[in-house]
């Protein structure tokens, strides 16, 4: 999947002008095209970083904290729900009886951030407005078993190839969501170190390094500290403008009882001074600074790396940010496992934290060393590099193997809603026997049917089905679950006719 669009962008992403590299501003037509290229270059982890970015929302005061949820609490519940639904989607695709060919299908993630819910409403209000949706099915058709067997060998191979690409994309997105959750919200102990990396923002190429600062995560009043080069020298120590510095503060805030968080470290980035100029290729004597903030913790499953980004300050060597970032600490362990377990029985138990490695790895950790902290007297040996591609792919393959094993076992399926008129325990193993002979399918694609549960025991699901020979409408009388998938029927004159054979988790 590529990131093709982003509605409701957070302020930090909006500040990343894609035309800065060209030195051109104000051209809306060119900016739109350049933005699309910039978004398409983003990795899955970068996309989710911006999707969950709430650090520039108004900071909830300590008094308000008792009454309503904070933006960080909202984003945690949102990602928890996304992880569950993406895992359900990956499993549902595997249980489809025959390969599909959904032309141009895209996945949409969304949540409502218009207001902060009260603690009385709780997380249920957030989950209700968190959506994982699939679009662009209008040119597609549901491939049934009978239709698939009537295709030529070449056409069957073509369907299988495209279906493999699609399922692989769903797998990757679900894995990225789970990995992001582990590293953003998996800490239940303490965060140990914080790395500030100041760069000159470039939309089409890698950002240019300007300086870094490594500090322990502990109560720190507003402090002005020197920043270092990659080799450990002071930035600007021989410059006429003086040494480059970063001003920041750190404080701990406890959360009220009943919150999913024990508390959070509030990292305030105030300003920087005397930064070096990097836009020399554009013949400018300035820079467009941005700060990457990576917090580090370690648990039994390995290293946790929480990464966030500040906004871009355009053409500025003495930027004022005044932005506050949160490093949350969960009250109870096992939240990621609970999200996966709610998608399918035993999925949480199979997926250990080690299959979700960090996107970046500190070199000191690779070498078994302990980092020296930045100061004016001792240079920092803290440097970062991307995680080994082989380690990432190995972890991803393990995730796919877990999904394969779960999908192959019908006993792992979560209970589905069955109509009251459907006999309990009825299971179909040959869906082709229920397809109406000669029925002409209407080329309207797959259409959603939203149902709400009638009782607390009934799970709400969104069914995507192809309705035959009539305009699409929510007219399904009954459904049943078999090892091959979910089969949706309508009953006419005592005969059961198959309308569709796929079910996805509820998108509320």
From TrEMBL:
Q: Which ranges are annotated Basic and acidic residues under compositional bias?
A: 429-439
Q: Which CDD domains match?
A: C2
Which residues belong to any copy of the C2 domain?
246-383
* Residue segments, region Disordered: 410-457
Cite a single Pfam family from the UniProt record: C2
Q: What is this protein called?
A: C2 domain-containing protein
**Taxonomic lineage of this organism?**
Eukaryota, Sar, Alveolata, Dinophyceae, Suessiales
């Amino acid at each position: 999947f590529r990131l093709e669009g982003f509605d409701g962008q957070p302020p930090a992403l909006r500040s990343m002008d894609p035309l800065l590299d060209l030195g051109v501003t104000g051209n809306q037509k060119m900016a739109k095209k350049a933005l699309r290229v910039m978004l398409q270059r983003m990795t899955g982890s970068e996309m989710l970083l911006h999707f969950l970015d709430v650090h520039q929302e108004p900071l909830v005061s300590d008094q308000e904290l008792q009454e309503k949820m904070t933006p960080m609490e909202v984003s945690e519940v949102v990602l928890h729900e996304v992880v569950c639904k993406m895992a359900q989607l990956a499993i549902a695709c595997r249980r489809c009886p025959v390969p599909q060919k959904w032309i141009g299908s895209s996945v949409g993630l969304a949540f409502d951030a218009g207001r902060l819910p009260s603690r009385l409403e709780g997380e249920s209000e957030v989950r209700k407005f968190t959506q994982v949706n699939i679009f662009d099915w209008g040119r597609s058709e549901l491939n049934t078993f009978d239709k698939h067997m009537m295709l030529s060998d070449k056409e069957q191979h073509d369907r299988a190839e495209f279906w493999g690409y699609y399922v692989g994309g769903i797998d990757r997105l679900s894995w990225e969501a789970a990995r992001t959750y582990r590293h953003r919200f998996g800490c239940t102990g303490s965060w140990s170190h914080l790395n500030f990396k100041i760069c000159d923002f470039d939309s089409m190429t890698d950002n240019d390094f300007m300086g870094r600062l490594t500090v322990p995560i502990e109560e720190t009043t507003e402090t002005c500290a020197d920043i270092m080069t990659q080799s450990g020298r002071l930035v600007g120590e021989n410059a006429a403008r003086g040494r480059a510095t970063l001003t920041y503060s750190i404080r701990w805030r406890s959360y009220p009882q009943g919150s999913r968080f024990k508390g959070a470290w509030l990292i305030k980035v105030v300003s920087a001074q005397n930064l070096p100029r990097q836009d020399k290729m554009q013949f400018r004597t300035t820079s467009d600074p941005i700060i990457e903030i990576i917090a580090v913790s370690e648990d039994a499953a390995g290293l946790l790396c929480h990464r966030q980004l500040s906004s871009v300050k355009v053409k500025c060597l003495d930027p004022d940010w005044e932005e506050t970032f949160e490093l949350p600490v969960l009250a109870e362990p096992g939240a990621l496992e609970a999200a996966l377990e709610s998608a399918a029985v035993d999925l949480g138990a199979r997926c250990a934290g080690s299959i979700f490695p960090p996107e970046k790895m500190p070199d000191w950790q690779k070498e078994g060393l302990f980092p020296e902290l930045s100061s004016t007297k001792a240079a920092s040996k803290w440097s970062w590099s991307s995680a080994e591609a082989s380690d990432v792919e190995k972890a991803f393959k393990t995730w796919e193997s877990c999904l394969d094993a779960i999908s192959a076992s019908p006993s792992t399926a979560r209970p589905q809603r069955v109509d009251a008129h459907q006999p309990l325990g009825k299971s179909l193993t040959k869906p082709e026997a229920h397809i109406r002979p000669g029925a002409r399918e209407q080329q309207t694609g797959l259409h959603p049917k939203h149902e709400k549960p009638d009782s607390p025991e009934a799970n709400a699901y969104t069914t995507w089905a192809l309705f035959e020979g009539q305009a699409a409408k929510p007219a399904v009388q009954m459904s049943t679950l078999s090892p091959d998938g979910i089969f949706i029927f309508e009953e006419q004159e005592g005969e059961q006719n198959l309308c569709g054979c796929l079910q996805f988790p509820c998108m509320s």
